[in-house]
Design brief:
The chain has 134 residues and is of the alpha/beta class. The chain contains 2 helices and 7 strands; from the N terminus they run H-E-E-E-E-E-H-E-E. The N terminus is likely disordered.
Length: 134
């Protein structure tokens, strides 16, 4: 009986770690499209992992990737505070509203202050350009 519980507990731990790594992998680097300042940008995902030092901008991944929502950036090329495509990824959870496409970080942060969404800690740091979508 004890061996069975031990095997079951080990299997559950492995499944949990596998699920966590899948979620982490989906969190970044983002590919496809990202909104910043109400404009849509294309991205090129790069296989980078940066250490925790130096300036970064935030990218907010909206909900589950299967929701089909584009991520939102707090900065973009041309902004004074843009850090050249150095990003910190934060996962966003929809708390009291349905998954919604935000197109700028200010509206997203306002929703967080109202408790409509929650913003998680940094899950990854990487480099990736934003290219204005036409």
């Amino acid at each position: 009986m004890r061996t069975r519980r031990s095997i079951l507990a080990s299997a559950m731990a492995v499944m949990s770690l596998s699920l966590a790594s899948i979620v982490f992998a989906q969190a970044g680097p983002p590919g496809g499209m990202i909104y910043a300042n109400d404009e849509l940008y294309r991205t090129v995902g790069t296989p980078t992992d940066l250490p925790e030092h130096g300036p970064f901008d935030a990218i907010y991944v909206l909900g589950d990737p299967s929701d089909g929502l584009a991520a939102v950036s707090e900065s973009a090329p041309g902004d004074r505070d843009y850090n050249g495509g150095r990003w910190e990824v934060h996962m966003v959870t929809f708390e009291t509203i349905e998954p919604t496409q935000f197109t700028n970080a200010d509206d997203l942060l306002d929703a967080a202050s109202r408790g409509e969404v929650s913003i998680g800690p940094v899950v990854r740091r990487f480099v990736c350009p934003l290219i204005k979508s036409r």
